[in-house]
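DM from R.C. (forwarded with permission)

"hey, sorry to bug you on a friday — could you get me a structure for this? deadline for the figure draft is monday and I only need the backbone to look sensible"
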Amino acid sequence: MATTFSSVSHLRSVFYASIAPKTRLSLPDFKNVRSWSASANYVDVKLHAAARAVSAKAKRIGVRCATLEEIEEEKSLIEEDARERMEKAIDNVRASFNSIRTGRANPAILDKVEVEYYGTPVVLKSIAQISTPDASSILVQPYDKSSLKSIEKAIVNSDLGMTPNNDGEVIRLSMPQLTSDRRKELSKVVAKQAEEGKVAIRNIRRDAIKSYEKLEKEKKLSEDNVKDLSADLQKVTDEYMKKIESIFKQKEKELLQV
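My reply, with the result:
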């Protein structure tokens, strides 16, 4: 059975015990003892050198393979963050699309209109009820009638190109029909906004991959781990790219529909 030595000194003691004669040494034996002592010192040197070599190698490698649980935890945290940011990118694209009016009445086109209310700029929908009584008009009914003038002014100053009709109670907005040229211009605008959304998604993917690569540099993930996680992340990216393409096609259809 192999013997395990806890230290170099332990090895030396065992070494001497194994060779020391049980009887009194004669004079000729004394020379042998000196030879044995030199051998033991040689063993010391070799063992210390081996220990240093192993230690150096451990420092160079300096990594233990991450467990499946650890890999899944890292993946979950990074992918969850990426998904949240991608969802926000989708919401931003939708908000941009909603602010572009089509031929049909849509309360969302007023989402970006800000009103000066008691000296503070607030979004219109926070101080008024907005509805569409029919397909070609929008009705704005403020909770505080004293804000009618401010709302009217905010709509006039917006880039919606609409003239509000203030009757002292509510504000009505009629949706003018878009010309063919105007529809084409707006189609280009939404196409640009969709592309900006896709760029945002790709940037989020890039940041997530950098997070994986950082873990690889820290010896927490292997190169193969990073490749597998990046492939999974690409599937998530493709999923959100399709979402942007879908809402873009829908908006384009609304714009071009006469």
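R.C.: lifesaver. The mean pLDDT is 78.
me: no worries. The beta strands are 114-117, 120-123, 128-134, 137-142, 165-166, 171-174.
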